[in-house]
Amino acid sequence: MKLAAAPRILTVAALCAAALIGLVIAEGLARADGQEITLPMEAVDPRSLLSGHYVQLNFTRRLEAAEACPVDTSGAALNDDWEWVALRPSNGIYVVAGGAPSRDQAERLGPLAVKGTFTCSPPTPPSQGVEGLPGWLSLNVGVDRFHINQTDATRIERVLGEQRPDQETRAFAILSVGRDGRARLKALLIDGERFDLSWL
């Protein structure tokens, strides 16, 4: 016996809705069960005409003259063969310890391995008559935006715009690193005020 078109459409729609609800619940549980980490952040325009209101996240850290870019598990310069990043705690935040092609290898460099990549430009040492320049390290863990209402997005944009490299960091992202190694955004911490992700 064949089902009429309308009941078949309703059945497919119900299955899709159930799958979506299951995915949301699974992601919520993974976010709640993961290891919470804090990353300093910089951001760009939090508003988009097409995407609504959001804070664009940018995990870039300044490297001072005495700091160096992280290395891979062999101690050599980093290349494109790795997709895991080792993180280590430092003064209440997490920083990049190195990169590796596998989770096991990344965990040899730091206590927490996360799926992702990073790019790094080392500081330029001073030379005769020329001041040295700081370097930078930019981390990508697949988290790039935080949707929020316009009022809070504008306020966060102002705080981020006021941040200076030589001053205390005022904006942080709080992420959860799950058992699968994926980073999931939980909240933003702006001037000590926490903005929790509320749509998942």
Runs in which pLDDT lies below 50 for 5 or more consecutive residues are none
Coarse morphology: globular
Mean pLDDT: 79
Number of helices: 3
Give the topology string: H per helix, E per strand: HEEEEEEEHEEEEHEEE
Fraction of residues in helix:
10-25%
Instruction: Characterize the largest beta sheet: strand count, sense, and whether it forms a barrel.
Output: 6 strands, antiparallel
First CA to last CA: what distance? 41 Å
Structural class determined from secondary elements: alpha+beta
Q: Radius of gyration, Cα only, in angstroms? A: 21 Å
DSSP, total strands:
14
Number of domains: 2
Strand portion = 35-45%
Kindly describe this structure.
- By secondary structure, this protein is an alpha+beta fold.
- It is 24% helix and 38% strand.
- It has helices at 5-33, 103-107, 150-162; strands at 35-40, 42-44, 47-48, 52-63, 71-72, 84-90, 93-100, 112-115, 117-121, 135-140, 145-147, 171-177, 183-190, 193-196.
- Strand 3 (47-48) and strand 4 (52-63) form a beta hairpin.
Summary?
The chain has 200 residues and is of the alpha+beta class.
Name some characteristics of this structure.
single chain; 200 residues; alpha+beta; 6-stranded antiparallel beta sheet; 14 strands
Secondary structure elements and pairings:
Layout: H1 5-33, E1 35-40, E2 42-44, E3 47-48, E4 52-63, E5 71-72, E6 84-90, E7 93-100, H2 103-107, E8 112-115, E9 117-121, E10 135-140, E11 145-147, H3 150-162, E12 171-177, E13 183-190, E14 193-196
Parallel strand pairs: 5-7
Antiparallel strand pairs: 1-12, 2-4, 3-4, 4-10, 4-11, 6-7, 6-8, 9-10, 12-13, 13-14
